[in-house]
Structures are given as C-alpha cells and as structure tokens.
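Q: Give me the 3D complex with iron/sulfur cluster.
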Amino acid sequence: MPGQSRFADLEPLLERVQKPIQYVGGELNSTVKDWNCGGHGPDESELTVRWALMYPDAYEVGLPNQGVMILYEVLNERPDALAERTYAVWPDLEGLLREAGVPQLTVDGHRPVGDFDIFGVSFSTELGYTNFLTALDLAGIPLHASERTEGHPLVIVGGHASFNPEPIADFVDAVVVGDGEQAVLELTDLVAAWKSRGRKGGRAELLAQVARSQLAYVPSCYEVDYHPDGRIRRVAPKPDLGGVPWRVAKHTVTDLDAWPYPKAPLVPLAETVHERMSVEIFRGCTRGCRFCQAGMITRPVRERSITGIGEMVERGLSATGFEEVGLLSLSSADHTEIAAIAKGLADRYEGSQTGLSLPSTRVDAFNIELANELTRGGRRSGLTFAPEGGSERLRRVINKTVTEDDLVATVAAAYGAGWRQVKLYFMCGLPTETDDDVLQIAALAAKVIETGRRVSGQRDIRCTVSIGGFVPKPHTPFQWAGQLAAGATDARLRLLRDTIRADRRYGRSIGFRYHDGQPGIIEGLLSRGDRRVGAVIEGVWRDGGRFDGWSEHFSYERWMRAAAEAFDGTAVSVDWFTTRERDRREVLPWDHIDSGLDRDWLWEDWQAALAEQEVDDCRWSACFDCGVCPEMGTQIEIGPTGRVLLPLSVSSGARQRLSEPPTAVTSVSSDSVAEVGQRLT
Ligand code: SF4
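A: Here is the predicted complex, encoded as structure tokens.
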C-alpha cells in the first residue's frame, strides 16, 4: 500500500550508523497527516496532494532551513494536502539502505519518497546536486526526467540555485523560480484538479499545463541550440507545444505580514547549525552589492511590520522554547524600524533567557545603540562584519560602499563598548582585483587591532579575517566576469597569509581562515553552466560524489575527471564555463529565466563596476531602474509604520521602564497588540 511507514525496515539499520537520531523524526511541531487526508475513505485518496520536501544536505544543515520549514507548514495547513520532509542520508546509511532494499524515506511518516505526488527539492547551493541524485536513485525515481512514468512523483526544484536550473535540467520536471509559498499552493491546486479529472492526458499533459500556467519552468518543454564554438544560439519553447512562454518569471510574495511563517518552527532532535528560532524581518535587498546573487534575485525589498515581527517572535518562542531569536534577512540592520524592533524585543524579554541576534550586519548600518540592545544582559563575545573587498578601490568595484574610516570608526566604537573580538569577511578573486587589493586586508586588520588596543586600553584584542574565493553568479552584474583560476586564488591567499604572519606587531592577534580555490571553481561550473554540465554532475555522482559542500567529501579530481570525460570532443571545458569572460551579446544559459532585472541595466552596472562607480540603494534614494518593480508589478514595501512593538507579557525588569500602569500592559493579548500599541503611545 502506498504511503505505509517503513520504519520497521529502517530501525534495525540505525544502530549501525552515525547519528541515527537524524532519521527518526518526531520533532516538536512536526506533522504526520493521514495519507488520505483529502478524502474520506480509501476511494477518495486521490483527492490528497502529497509533497515530499527535501533539503539536499545532512539533517543538521537542512532542518533549520527556513524555506523548507515555511513550505512544510503552508502545505500542511491545507486540508487536502500533506507535506513531509526528507534530508540527504550520509553514505553509511545509503549503503545499508541499498543492501536492505529500503528506499529514501521521509523523516515524518517514514514513507517512501517515491509514493508522493511531488518530490520538491530546495537548493540554496549548487553543491547539493549530487545529493539530489542520490535521493532520486534511492527513491527509485529515474534520474532522467525523460524516463519517468505515471507512477513517479513530479520532481520540482526551487531555491536560489534554481535561477539557473540548466545544469540539472535533465533531472528535474519543473522549476519554481522565486518565492515558493504561494507557488506551491497554486501547484497543489493544479495537481489536485488534474487528479480529480482522472489524470487526464497523463504526466506529459500535466507538465504542459504547468509550463503554460507559468507557475514553473519545465525544461523538457524547451530546446537548446548551440553555435559550433560552444556558445548557446538560443533556448526556445518546443514548436509543437503551443502556449509555452519564451521566458519564465520569478514569483514574488508581497505583504509579508500576510505570510507569518513558520508559525511553529521545528525544534531539532539532534544538534544543527543554528540552535535558534529565526524570524525573517524583510525579504530582498537593494544595496546593490554586485557580487551578491541573493540581493539581486530577491528584489524588491519587502519589510515585515514591527507588529508582525513582534507577534511572530512571541508565537514562535512559545511554540518552541528556543532561547535565541535571529532576526533574519540579507542585511538585518537595514530594516527601517530596526532600532524600535531591537529595543522593543529587548524590553519584552529582559530578565528572561531569551537572546537576540542579527545574523548579518553591514558595517555602515551598525551602531552601538543597536548592538547594546541586542546584547542587553548578555555576553559581548564577538561582532562580525563583511567589508568583502580589501581595498577601497575594490569596494567601489563591488558597490560595497564602506570606507576604511567607516570600518575603523565602527570597530573603535565596538571595542570601546566592551567587545573584544571582531570577525571580518572578505572575498578573493573579485573582478579587477590585484595582489595589492588583497594585501590591504592585512593592513586593515592591523589597523583594527591597533584601534582596539588604543580604545580599550587592553591587549587581548582579536580580529579574525575569514576569506573565500569569489564565484560569479547568474543575474548579477558580474555574470559576464571571468572567475579567478583556483591556482591564482590560492597563490593570492598564501601571499596574504604570509604577510599577516610576518607582522610582528599585530600578526599574533589576527586569526586567518581561508578556503582554497578548487571548490569555488566547481561551484562556478555549476552556477554558470548549461545543460551540458548535467553529464558532469551525473558522472561525479556515479563515481561516488556525495556531500560536495563538505570539504572532507569534496574531490576536485573527481569533478575534473568527470568533466574531462563529459566534455571530450566538445568545444567546452571547465575553464570555458568558469574563467572565461562573456561578451554582451552571448546568450547566457539563464537568459530565459526572468528575475525581473533588466539585462541592459545589469550590463551597465557591470560597466560601472569596471569604471569603479558606485550606485545608491533605492530603498533610501530614487529608483535606479533595475527593472524589477515594473517587470514584476511589485514595489518596495518599507516603513516606518509609526507603530511600536510592546511587550506582550512583561518581565519585572521591563515593567519599571514603562510609563503606563502595568495592568494596562499585562492585559494586552497578542491579537490586540497593534491597537493597544497606538493607545499607549
Ligand atoms: S525597480 Fe527601482 S525601486 Fe524597484 S528594486 Fe529596482 S531600483 Fe529599486
């Protein structure tokens, strides 16, 4: 019977694997619905649309993923749908599953992934592609979409990597581009209607409907022609499929307050990368950092209101028992009401164990008042900033408009206020970069230490420099740039390391962490590759490639071997896809995926980068005509709202500071917070 739990088959294998707890499910706030929840009896089981959702990495990385958590909850709220989760199994369990003939299972109901209607996979990074193939294979789903039949789930992918899905085009049925929460509901409607019509027209008809509806990109509905020199001539809808669009547009959710998910975040059973609850305080970023794909593809900025944030924090904490709340976004200190949010939350939770954090803070948006609110009553361990480029010249190229004076003034204020450690993130291999740009990182770190010692009067000041290779990404102004070769990246990083070590005065106070250049080249191949790269991914997977995002599993040699085989006799190579600069006219593999960004605007911004010209943030200044808002019918959604975030339940420490009598405040319910907030101010 489809949908039966296979836990009895899995359980005996678990005592032979590392971390068996990650496969058992049953987390707080997880859901296992009846397999036939959409109907009222076995005959009506067809009325349910069932999703198996995967984050293609280990449980400890996948469970905290907000995207999967949101879709899981949004789908399970529907009476006629169910969603369960699955994560990548480590090679030890993979071997045992194969031996025992047990398929890829969900962690919720331990049901075979192959029994579901839809297998939905969210890719934050391209290095999850081999794990995706493992899951397909273990689930008994043919790797190639063309070989799937009526009995197989639809394989639908999404996430940031899906803005160039071409390298995995052969393995997927459809691709949701952009925000997923509304799209999965509409896809559920479409599949439900098709099922209720007795699956009329079969799988091919369903996919054609998906393609025509523009809900998702269906790679099999398009064909790609190439020039003899390897470049793409064009990507076009197949002529026999009427109504399939030439370009597929991203989905954009507006009014984040209408989507307060996850309402009840999952609480992991095993240790995970983030032991905290996250509340997304805004989506999108218009700072215009030219290297940042996330910022470009999530435009425009859409802020959640201060009251919406307050309610999500309160509800989430009581649903989970977490003691830390991360205020999540691409640049959290940029929220127009961040000061009031931080103060309001610090007031509300003062005296409790609840801590607050901003996972990403720009140097120029940071201020000590904000940091003080976030660490009120807590330890001031470390602050992290990301200047990204070592020299001011390079920061103009990447449009990260932070001057050295800004950075030094910020760290001086931080050290003066009691912090002892600062972490600085940089990239190596940025367009136009020279050795000198990178060596300026050493000088900057020394200046940070010197400033810290002077301001604090202490010698135990530390600065850690963390640096990785830059990978040019689709839908950014750097999509045309040549990537720095792995050897050149490594040589530049060695030079920097030796320079820091040779600094007798400050070198010992500077920590240095770097990633070598080889994984970046493979990420570059997968990011800017086209359909021909699919053979490389499959070759690596067949050669044992798994968990490529983990340094202990990643093998550059395996990737290069598979690429040499796949590209043998063709005009393309790994270098062709990575270190080659493209010209304006070249058809890029992702040109038919519409992120809303105007191609001419991106090109002009690339030229502005080469001319070291900066562009302002449209959140605070005029529109720079990137194309997103008119193209997508959206607009920036920001405050200030003028509202305040009031404590819903007041701790004794916070009560002292409120000007109104405590009874007026303690009677506030979460439903009426906005209204009472107006009254009290
Ligand atoms: S269209 Fe204008 S306002 Fe909208 S994101 Fe682009 S630059 Fe900003």
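A quick observation: The first helix runs from residue 7 to 14.
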